[in-house]
Structure formats: structure tokens, C-alpha cells
Amino acid sequence: MPFVLLYVVVEIVTLVAVASWLGVGATLAILLAGSVLGLWLARREGVRAAQAVATAMQERRVAHAEITDGMLVAVGGLLLFVPGLVTDVAGLVLVLPPTRALVRRRLVRAAEERHPQLRTARIRSSGTIVDGEVVDGEVVVNEPVGARRALGPVVDGSVVDSDRPIR
User: Fold this and answer.
1) R_g over Cα of the chain
2) Residue 127: helix, strand or coil by DSSP?
């Protein structure tokens, strides 16, 4: 409840300040133009974010950046729907791609600092995918230099993601 009261006070103070500086008509025009432009941008960027998620899924890669972008666009669209100059500015910051990228990086960094396993999962998500199983025994690996014996568990399988070289 205190946040709602703080929001109302900040919006009223901002509206009064802008109206006394530019006039009531210009302030109303700014409010209307910001809402219309912002909702149009939110729709456009929301469609782009959904297409980016679909593309990532088709390419079988983790879509963490695309999903985060979609979430930020949704929050920005919600802020643009709420009347007020402060929320319009905050919504535009989340909807415009250059500023959204800055917010996304900061948000991901904060989440990874809070939960370090998220960083590990993000780093591992870009590796080669091998479908296989561990079998007992020794395997001879033929290399240009010669044959060598593998020590420890041996993985028998095939590479699913063959676009990337195996290291």
C-alpha cells in the first residue's frame, strides 16, 4: 500500500511540474502521444520477442535472452498502459531495444549474483550436445598422431549438435 501512495504522489508532482512548465494542453498531448507510441512499440517488440523465442527453439538452443526480452517488453507494455508520465518513461525504457538490452544485462547479472547456478547453466547451455551412455571398458581412439587408450568411463553415443566442433 505505501508503494501505491508513493506512486500516486510522484505522478501528481510530475504532472503538476510538467503542466506548469509546458502548459496543460502540451502535458495532455505528451501523455496521449506517449501512451499511443508506447503501446504500438510494445506490440511490435512483443511480436519480435515471440519470433526470437520461436527461432531459438527451432535451433534447439536455450532462449534465455529472448525470454528475458519478452518479459521486459510485457512489463514495459503494462507500465505504458498505466496512466502517468513516470510510468510512460519507465515503460519506454523497457520497450526500446537499446535500453532494454542494458536493463536485461543488469537483470541477468543481478540474478546470477543472487543464484550462481544460473550463470553455470547459461554457460553450459552453449556447449555441444552429445546423446550417449556411459559403458564399461576401454576404447581405442584413432587420432592422426596414433592410437591411445581411454582411461575412466567411456561414452558411447553420437553428436546431436553437429554444427559445432567437438573439443
Assistant:
1) 25
2) coil
